[in-house]
Specification:
There is one protein chain. The protein is built from 9 helices and 3 strands, in the order H-H-E-E-E-H-H-H-H-H-H-H. By secondary structure, it is mainly alpha-helical.
Length: about 290
């Protein structure tokens, strides 16, 4: 970033009294800081179109403007299609605005699908609405793992609710592990399809994250991260750990209408404290 751009960003932060991540290159974004740039001219590499990008943001605006308003704040989705940054981030200011910043560079990445883009937006909304655990450094934002978890279990499920999910998934190849688990948890055909669709959106993002961080081991539903943290991990978990989070969130049978709590990490979610055996947040980042 040039000195001029840094100064401009600093002045924007001052003018809006920003309380979170005035860092468009992602130290506090969807993924760890990276220097990858994918300008509009490189759309041929893959990813989604501008029409798909805007369709996701339009739907998120429709679904969550009122939800955020009920918290006494205002939702703002900052669409930056022409910006080549491969990331996304959330912030809020003292004027009562909760913003998610969505970049075209991320949308144009070869691993990005329309559903994966929706999950990124859900992750950023999750920093505002995802509840406990809260990042100790922010005082208001759900930590990275919780944003992933809420983003899949609550937001993405809500996003898919009105779709013809059975038809959408008819021609999609779904790993047998996912089919078996989703059918074990859910009995309604549409709920099974939503579970499978959510899991695959998470897989697309985990592959993207693995590519960005130059992971040497492929991510997979059948190779969960076995690590156990000694204390709550607020930063970005590794790619496999994040896939595990997306997957368990898809398997959690607590509906999106069940509200979470900013102070109690056991409310509205799957947790061993409530006797849940499947759908709990992975111990590779979560410490009860």
């Amino acid at each position: 970033m040039t000195k001029l751009k840094k100064l401009s960003l600093f002045l924007v932060c001052l003018s809006t009294y920003s309380i979170f991540a005035c860092d468009i290159h992602g130290t506090s974004g969807f993924m760890p800081e990276n220097n990858l740039q994918i300008p509009v001219g490189e759309k041929s590499l893959g990813g989604i179109t501008e029409v798909q990008f805007n369709r996701v943001m339009d739907k998120m605006t429709t679904l969550y403007t009122t939800v955020v308003a009920k918290t006494g704040r205002t939702l703002n989705i900052d669409r930056r299609w022409t910006d080549p940054t491969v990331n996304a981030y959330a912030d809020q200011n003292t004027l009562g605005m909760d913003t998610i910043h969505m970049f075209g560079g991320l949308a144009r990445h070869p691993e990005t699908t329309e559903d994966a883009m929706a999950l990124v937006a859900c992750h950023e909304l999750g920093h505002h609405l995802g509840g406990a655990p809260i990042k100790t450094t922010s005082g208001w934002a759900s930590n990275e793992g919780q944003a992933d978890y809420w983003g899949t279990m609550k937001c993405l499920r809500h996003y898919f609710e009105s779709d013809d999910n059975q038809t959408i998934m008819q021609s999609v190849s779904v790993p047998s592990e996912v089919v078996t688990k989703c059918q074990f948890i859910y009995k309604n055909a549409n709920e099974i399809a939503v579970c499978e669709r959510s899991a695959l959106a998470g897989l697309a993002l985990a592959k993207l994250l693995n590519a960005i961080t130059q992971g040497t081991v492929p991510v997979s539903f059948s190779t969960p991260d076995k690590s156990v943290v000694s204390q709550m991990f607020d930063a970005h978990p590794q790619s496999q750990c994040r896939l595990d989070t997306y997957y368990q969130a898809a398997l959690c049978d607590h509906g999106f209408s069940e509200v979470v709590s900013k102070s109690d990490e056991n409310v509205g979610v799957c947790t061993s404290n409530n006797g849940d055996k499947i759908g709990n947040r992975p111990m590779c980042w979560f410490k009860p």
